[in-house]
Amino acid sequence: MNLDVKHYIHKEKWISDSLCDELVEILDDENTWLPFPKDVVGAYPGEERPQDGIVGSSLSIDWEQFIGDPNIPEQERNYGLAHLKNQIVLDKVRASMRKGLDHYVHKYLKDIEWYDYYRDFTNPKFMKYQPTHDMQLHCDHVGNAVGGKGIPTVSMVGCLNNNYKGGYLRFFEHAGPAGSEYWLNKGDIIYFPSNFLYPHRVTEVTEGLRYSFVSWVW
Question: How far is residue 77's CA from residue 39's CA, in Å, rounded to a whole number?
């Protein structure tokens, strides 16, 4: 077993360019993007919201309480969130995600003999970041991510385009030089454990649009 926590962050291209382009086109055509607040604490001053992770984390709360909330002040709105309605294309992207996940669990982690099985993973939540959008530091140790089926074991983050600047996936931000940044290229999926040892965030997008998705494994 490798004792370097960075070893368990693994990035590889699993989605074809053509499928990435198709996904972006369909997501914008369906146009179900709903805003998420930049700061879930600052956007609702004086109002308590149930959380089960790092205070202010956009992944430590029940997303359904915030997605598309008309009371989010305009200046506090952040990246857009969407679910893909097109089932045929959703099945294609899930097949690509599964290939990468099988590789991660059964080959990349082949020395971890006590973790060689998973049940399923959530349908991807798609995100569209515009310039100034980012995501706060958080970990994915959150029960509502997999619909009451427990706590996720692995997180999958994918990217659908590469014509943007900024938007790095940054791990271990407070570790100084030991921290790590990953720029996701078109079709890349990055896999990592969904626990408190893997704090991460998305840095501010400075140019273009960043289309990505997230899914959790149980």
Answer: 8
Does this model's pTM top 0.85? My answer is yes
Task: Encode pLDDT of 12-55 as tens digits.
Answer: 999 999 999 999 999 999 999 988 877 665 555 555 554 434 44
Q: What domains can you pick out in the chain, each with its CATH number? A: 6-36+80-217 (2.60.120.620)
Contacts of residue 182, Cβ cutoff 8 Å, sequence gap at least 6: 9, 11, 168, 169, 170, 171, 190
Give the strand pairing for 180-182 and 169-171.
Answer: antiparallel
CB 180 within 8 Å of CB 35: no
Q: Hey, what are 202's tokens?
A: 């998305």
Residue 37 — φ and ψ, nearest 5°? -70, 145
Cα dihedral: 85, 89, 91, 93 (round 10): -110
The C-alpha atoms of residue 132 and residue 189 are separated, in whole angstroms, by 23
